[in-house]
Amino acid sequence: MNARTSDKIATFIFYFIAFFVSLLLIALIGFILYHGLGVINWHFLTSPPNAFRKGGGVGPQIFNSFLLLVLTMVFTIPLGLGAGIYLAEFARENRWTRIIRICTETLASLPSIVIGLFGLLFFVTVLKWGFSLIAGALALTVLNLPVMTRISEDTLRSVKRELREASLALGATQWQTIVHVVLVAAIPGLVTGIILTAGRVFGEAAALLYTAGITTPRLQFNNWNPFHINSPLYIFRPAETLAVHIWKVNSEGLAPDARQIADGASAILIVMVLFFNIVSRWLGRWLYKRMTGN
């Protein structure tokens, strides 16, 4: 077989794999939306769930999912980005940095159920926070931190060396170069890391079973005092997310319309993830263009 034929065969195989993966993804999303969109209406989106009767909604679970996402990102982005900046810009290649990278990769490979058990022992039991939003957010931060750190480090390292040298040659300090040149050039890659970690927050259930809990108290959406126990913003209350609710409905099956609830909640979850991805990428491109002038 000559080189030209081998090249055509390899190209065909790669195109076929890309087409097959895309078709599989479209079929999976289409299947979920086909079964779930018919269930979604205003009542379903805004009503609380009903464990034993038909007609329950997922309103509190949607709110909990977004609030948990915000809380988790508040911890994950600064810590992960800071660790990435240290490893890419300041740390020298020695035994200490190799140990840090090994620990990061080991932590990234841990099953989420193990992270959930750690959260149960430390945040829920030792710190006596109970099943709460803050315990779930910190457990997900532990889960997402290795991914955010690794992506931040790789993205910062991929910025062209000439940009750093030009900034330093103009008299900027190393910190000014990092803030005004390196981070700006790395925005598209950093946005990708944020999207990956956010998608994990939306879809994670195992770690939250042991930290955020599988129930939600009755919330008063006219009370936005974050220190009141019935306020939606109170972070020391149990908070069942949409992914946990899907698992609970399917595993318990007490509601007569459990299948319809699971289908509708799955479709909402898919739409939420797609919406967040699209908005994040648009915002990342807008920031990049605005800060670089391209």
UniProtKB/TrEMBL annotation:
Task: Please tell me whether the keyword Transport is annotated for this protein.
Answer: yes
> Which GO BP terms apply?
phosphate ion transmembrane transport
The record's section on Gene3D superfamilies has: MetI-like (1.10.3720.10)
> Where does the protein end up?
Cell membrane
Q: Give a Gene Ontology cellular component term annotated to this protein.
A: plasma membrane
Q: Which GO terms describe its molecular function?
A: phosphate transmembrane transporter activity
Keywords (alphabetical) are: Cell membrane, Membrane, Transmembrane, Transmembrane helix, Transport
Tell me any Pfam family this protein matches.
BPD_transp_1
Kindly list the residue ranges recorded as spanning the membrane.
12-42, 62-87, 99-123, 129-147, 168-196, 264-284
Family, similarity comment: Belongs to the binding-protein-dependent transport system permease family. CysTW subfamily.
What NCBIfam families does the annotation carry? 3a0107s02c (TIGR00974)
Protein name per the record: Phosphate transport system permease protein PstA
Task: Give the originating organism.
Answer: Biomaibacter acetigenes
Give the classification, highest ranks.
Bacteria, Bacillati, Bacillota, Clostridia, Thermosediminibacterales
Q: Which gene encodes it?
A: pstA
